[in-house]
Amino acid sequence: MKKEEISKYFDEICGYEKEKLELTYLADVMTSMKEYEKLGARLPGNLMLAGPPGVGKTLMAKCLIDASGRKSFVCRRNDGDKDFIEVIKDTFRRAAESEPSIVLLDDMDKFAGRFRSESAEFAAVQACLDDVKDRDVFVIATINESEGMSESLIRPGRFDHQMAIGTPDEKSAGQIIDRYLMTRGNIADDIDRDVLVQLTNGKTAVEIMTLANEAAVFAGYDRAEAIHMRHVVRAFVDSIGNYKGNIADESAARITACHEAGHAVMSELLDPGSAAIVFAADVMSDSSGFMSRGRRNKTLYSGQFREDALISLAGRAATEIVTGAPDRGSEMDIKTAFMATDREVRGVCAHGLRYVRAYRGRLESEKRRNRCDAAVRKRMMEYYREAMAILQSNRLFLDRMTEELCEHGYLMQKDIARIREEISMAEQGETEEKKYA
Q1: What CA–CA distance (Å, rounded) separates 325 from 266?
Q2: Mapping DSSP to helix (H, G, I), strand (E, B) and coil, where does residue 368 land?
Q3: Whose CB has fewer CB within 10 Å in the chain, the N or C terminal residue?
Q4: Residue 18: enclosing H or E segment and its boundaries?
Q5: Three-state SS sequence of 53-109
Q6: Is there a contact between 14 and 176 (Cβ–Cβ < 8 Å)?
Q7: Structural domains of the chain ordered from first start
Q8: Per-residue pLDDT tens for 108-130?
Q9: What's the pLDDT band for 269 if we cut at 50, 70, 90?
Q10: How far apart are the first and last CA of the chain?
């Protein structure tokens, strides 16, 4: 089989170009063994696909099976299996009798539950792998997490080729959005693909597909002629919390809008373009709103934890600036800020090695723990004062964001950028007037 023909088997997978190329290599080895044997190469011993649920591990495995042309045998844990160990053994026995073949151990980490590395089920898999080592049986395993699994089972040697499958990157997310939403013939002009790519940061392929379908469902319920951005936003909100309609109390709605505007303003000031969407109604949560940050460089950079803490504290700070009273709906924000500050103080030792977290093997003394917690709380108070100062210096930006949130219910990144640009141009105009006055 030609390489071009093999690659077509993976067209069902959106994005993930690097991963598809690796799978294409394996399929080519299986279908053109003689070409590789001339060079002394062999088929890698089995494949493990590891990653969170919904990223497409099983789909990738099935595409590889189809491309290989081999007969396949799937082993998956079902509650109805009375003797799963016998199911495992029988799967490998049938595969050995039908070589060349492939065994798919789907969700192998669920074979024996969590934290059971010495389980009989995992021992059976390991024994079966060893039994077919010299047979033309290729084994593919998909796992959601390796925690609690036997290291001897998942090590190279039993699984020579190991691939980590993460959530889609920006390019892959765009391709998934194109296939399941943008290619529909009923997309309204206000749908912005770039905004959707930013909005789906951290979501799996299945979640993006579901989001597209939910948007279409909401559009259908509205009897709309096309899917609009408001339908996508409604679907996004529904995926986070329980939809419950607008907040009845106008004063409460304004406080919520102010709180969420604080998060968005701080995010935009510290990391321009990072606030993908800010929402201030229609969702059931501690604050009846949320601010979602878009795709960012995942590489750890200096000051990241400070930024995370400032953004988390900005909602409470904004409410206090505007109302003069503490925000009672910021408990989760404070916890998030504490975790970010704790990682800065004790994790990366940004404030001295005396706070380093080096007690992995034994319990930390209460005296030391209290000293470290005091340092974290002190740093958090400094960040809260800094957040207050930043927002007070950008009060016009905060007020404009609050007003538009009260009016529209949600703002996208392009709306936030527009508001900031309008403020900047107005300030430049005032400067020019004073200059020539």
Answers
A1: 20
A2: helix
A3: C
A4: helix 17-31
A5: CCCCHHHHHHHHHHHHCCEEEEEECCCCCCCHHHHHHHHHHHHHHCCCEEEEEECHH
A6: yes
A7: 3-164 (3.40.50.300), 170-240 (1.10.8.60), 250-422 (1.20.58.760)
A8: 988 876 556 568 888 899 999 99
A9: very high
A10: 79
